[in-house]
Design a protein that fits this description.
mainly alpha, Helix Hairpins, elongated
Length: 183
């Protein structure tokens, strides 16, 4: 019974994030904005953010609306990836042929994915509350990558603010926090 409730909670959180992001895309979509690139398998490696940044560089970042499209696209990609990871683990968890150890590991993976998504959303919300227009956080243990919308180089104080939030919310050490600006 507890496992079914947790499954529903995780599923509701992921679906709410996906629906919210899709609503933002629909609201902010502009004709003629096209994001292209190839899909790159993540496998939990920290190259996810850098490849995502590289793939979305095709978007002309001169306009604020196009920059916003980058962040919306990145969130959608992140939510899609999390959804796929959860689905894989749920297939193991609810497969009658899976042994108890595999089910236990699958449940731990689902919890970790859910915890990371919660931390990422918390980091983004807190940074936006501190005055950053747009940002996206991606946790790839032990690294945390943060992409921040900024037209100019971040000041030392701004970097310290970002690091402080990430260290507190994701329990990351400063050397594992990587900050990228996107204009």
């Amino acid at each position: 019974m507890l496992v079914v409730m947790r499954k529903k909670q995780v599923l509701v959180c992921v679906l709410a994030a996906i629906i919210g992001t899709a609503a933002m895309v629909n609201y902010n979509s502009q004709p003629g904005v096209e994001v292209s690139g190839e899909i790159i398998e993540n496998n939990g490696e920290s190259k996810y953010v850098s490849s995502l940044v590289d793939n979305l560089e095709a978007v002309n970042s001169d306009s604020s609306e196009l920059s916003d499209a980058y962040f919306v696209s990145a969130r959608l990609e992140r939510d899609r990836t999390f959804g796929e990871q959860i689905e894989i683990q749920e297939n193991i968890l609810y497969n009658e042929k899976s042994d108890e150890n595999a089910k236990k590991i699958a449940q731990e993976q689902i919890n970790a994915i859910s915890n990371n998504l919660t931390k990422e959303m918390s980091i983004e919300t807190l940074l936006e509350a501190k005055g950053f227009d747009e940002c996206i956080a991606i946790i790839n243990e032990p690294s945390v990558n943060v992409v921040v919308k900024s037209m100019e180089e971040l000041s030392v104080a701004q970097v310290a603010q970002i690091q402080n939030v990430v260290m507190r919310e994701a329990n990351a050490s400063p050397e594992n926090i990587h900050i990228v600006t996107k204009n």
